[in-house]
Amino acid sequence: MHRRTLLAGLSTVPFLSACGGDSTKFQRYSGPPVTQIQVHKAQREMYLISGDKVVRDYKVALGGNPVGRKQFEGDGRTPEGLYYINRRNPNSAYHLSLGISYPNDQDRVFAESLGRKPGGDIFIHGRAGKDGGRQDWTAGCVAVTDPEIEEIYAMVGTGTPVFLMP
């Protein structure tokens, strides 16, 4: 797929922080609703989709051990399967972040059957200067640039399906 810029509905909204300063971290989006997110791990691509149209796509960084599905806490893998955006963190250590509903019941049962913990706290997040210049560096999350997570944060709501594919 080709990189698309269908962001006519995205605009920066000044936000007064608790310190009294302005921040352009929070944006407003009035374009087509994002109905699903697809992450194609092998291609390091993430697509925001409305219906059957790609609204926006991004290059991503993954967990430091990205091949295969996440199985256990600390394995450095990014999950695979169907999950949902289940929370929004405006105070993320990684600029902004959107929580992914990993682990699901199947992930928990698998890990526990082997006496392990499945892990958790998987997010789509920014970099906040923490990538050290490496391609795949997260603990299992999906990372984009800080300006990109600002767009994504404005465009994606809680409950949006996230398809994480090999």
TrEMBL record:
Domain of life of the source: Bacteria
Keywords on record: Cell shape, Cell wall biogenesis/degradation, Peptidoglycan synthesis, Transferase
Protein name according to UniProt: L,D-TPase catalytic domain-containing protein
GO BP terms, alphabetized: cell wall organization; peptidoglycan biosynthetic process; regulation of cell shape
Homology family: Belongs to the YkuD family.
InterPro entries on file: LD_TPept_cat_dom (IPR005490), Transpep_catalytic_dom (IPR038063)
Keyword Signal: no
MF terms (GO), sorted A to Z: carboxypeptidase activity; transferase activity
Pathway the protein contributes to: Cell wall biogenesis; peptidoglycan biosynthesis
Active site: 125 (proton donor/acceptor), 141 (nucleophile)
Segments crossing the lipid bilayer: none
Organism: Paenirhodobacter hankyongi
Domain L,D-TPase catalytic: 35-165
Keyword Cell wall biogenesis/degradation included in the entry's annotation: yes
CDD domains, per the entry: YkuD_like
